[in-house]
Amino acid sequence: MNYLAHFLLAENNEQWRLGVLLGDVVKGRLDEQTWPALVCDGIQHHRAVDRWTDSHELVDTARELAPKPLRRYMGIVFDLMLDAWLSRHWQDWHDRPLAQFSADLYALMNRHHPQLPARLQRFSRYAQEYQVLSRYHEDAVMDRVLAGVASRLSRPGPLSDARRLLAPNQKQLDACFARFWPQAVHWSGQWVAELQATNKARAHR
Length: 205
Hints:
With about 200 residues, the protein is an all-alpha fold. It has helices at about 5-10, 15-20, 35-55, 55-65, 70, 75-90, 100-110, 120-130, 140-150, 160-165, 170-205. It has one domain (about 5-205). It is built from eleven helices and no strands. Helix 2 (about 15-20) crosses helix 3 (about 35-55) and helix 4 (about 55-65) packs antiparallel against helix 11 (about 170-205).
């Protein structure tokens, strides 16, 4: 769900980024007869980032900042609010303006729209209508996103009200993101290098 973070960590390659986009919806074993190798790499990257994030100690730190009813949802909240933090601090992490970066991603979604699963087709239309990727830092946009995710959960909870519930601890939460993101960039770079080395070794067998 934190597409901005995933795209920012992705390799600057169209098929890889398509795989990153698909990472939340393509499940199970990857078949390179269905998806090209670089798309599979992007899906694997998305999955690996999610696993690494879910087990990170700073997610536990952020969970302790939340009132108890919200704590079980803090994995989701951390992802979404990380995108809001990146949106606010974008110039520190990328040399291309966020609006242009987002427009490039919308263009990618449009080029591949027919092959996207229905869920991603809906997300693409929604994200472009509300310009979500470049506006995560706006409270109204974040509230809309949280409410949308909450509506898809199997039972009601406080997720849609997460931003307000966390507002008293927003500075501490931002400090978590400021510590987490450089680690994510470093870890992702190592993961990509290892994958590329593995792929190269396989190609020479």
